[in-house]
Amino acid sequence: MACAVGLRHPTIMTYSLPMILKAIVSNQIARFAPGLYVKLTGQTGRGDSTTETAADIAQYFRQCVIDYLDTLVIPQDERASFLQDKAVLEYGPGDIPGVALLLVAYGARKVYCVDRFPLVSISSKNLDVIHRLANMLGESERQRFDQCFKNPRAPEEGFNSEYIEYLVRPNGLSGLQGEIDIVLSRAVLEHVNDLEATFGDMVRAMKPGALAVHQVDLRSHGLHVSNPLDFLSPPSWLWQLMHSHKGVPNRWRADRYEQIVRQIEVECRRFEPTGRFEAEHVRTLRPQLDAAFANTGEDRLAWQGFWLVFVKQAEGSAA
Ligand SMILES: C[S@@+](CC[C@H](N)C(=O)[O-])C[C@H]1O[C@@H](n2cnc3c(N)ncnc32)[C@H](O)[C@@H]1O
Questions:
Q1: Which residues line the pocket of ligand 1, CB cutoff 6 A?
Q2: Which residue, judged by its Cα, is nearest atom 14 of ligand 1?
Q3: Any idea what the Cα angle at residue 258 is, between residues 86 and 270, rounded to 5°?
Q4: CATH 3.40.50.150 matches 12-312
């Protein structure tokens, strides 16, 4: 219930006082004990871990790879040659590097997976996912898939960093320089704590001519109360106090990404919404928005998510 808590600011009243206090305490746990926070919340990165089966998860990763290649408009019969020998950087793989495993199986030379949180865990359910992914592959793909593990007969012993390198870094920044051919992420950029720093890291990591493809989900991730956009009403200082160390949505809207992409040395190839909020929800929320969104137009406010594709320009070429 969105009750008044003695706080008269209309944007604060979206959340009840117990909700606010619980969020502030859990934010401090995430700050000082990120590993404990991940354990306590049972995070997988994909949301509700209780209802999804190993088969669902394996299928999800397969579909992610298909979506990336479709979005990059790579014809079916050119996919293997497109991936051949490519170095890939994936931001925010979640608790299993399923996309990375499939990309290596399909021909990529190496995938770096970078995360701000140490989510990857080879639990028995995730082992089941790995076996299911392996069973989706042809023989030569399967051989490359197996190379991704230190011991292919015991994937729980960990990944072979020649093929899959999992980097847990402060702020999720890879620190790589000019060695990546393809950057990708799905349901990640809306969680990063410093969007400009992440885009800067990604562009530094890319070779000239490298591609980036991102799917971004701008919905509330369960953090709204009644209107699906009301999580945009608490002031930024309160949102930071409640969530800054947890990786919950950073709340930036599509216009912010547009601005950042304009400022970096890339050529935007695709920037398209994946869905829209109802116009009525946008209109009723508009007067209660936090000041951070004062300049966001109604069209961009309505975007529920988007696909973004860009190419890093060669040095010295015009924007
Ligand atoms: C919703 S999950 C998505 C996981 C996976 N991409 C998928 O589609 O299942 C978000 C992921 O982003 C990661 N993340 C959060 N902040 C990050 C940051 N600043 N840099 C890189 N990854 C980050 C989370 O730890 C998590 O792995």
A1: 45-46, 91-94, 114-117, 119, 171-172, 186-188, 191-193, 198, 247
A2: 92
A3: 50
A4: yes
